[in-house]
Specification:
mainly beta; four-stranded antiparallel beta sheet; 4 strands; about 45% strand; elongated
């Protein structure tokens, strides 16, 4: 996602099998900012999930992480 005339900060959270990334709007200037997100709102986010068999999934916010391979749904 692009956002000109805006500044962001990033947050990364790592757990045993996941990495979550978020870009949050820190500041906007001019009337030329190309994002409709306000300061302190998440601009972009995704999660990378790695299973024990090495399978990796990248999912955007709002998309469910697929179940572990071989697990019941």
């Amino acid at each position: 996602m692009r956002a000109s005339h805006a500044s962001t900060f990033q947050g990364i959270k790592v757990t045993k099998n996941q990495l979550r990334y978020e870009a949050v709007v820190a500041a906007k200037w001019d009337d030329q900012s190309t994002t409709d997100k306000e300061v302190d709102e998440v601009l972009d986010a995704f999660t990378i999930t790695k299973y024990d068999d090495g399978t990796k999934y990248v999912t955007e916010d709002g998309v469910a992480v697929p179940p572990r391979p071989g697990s019941a749904r």
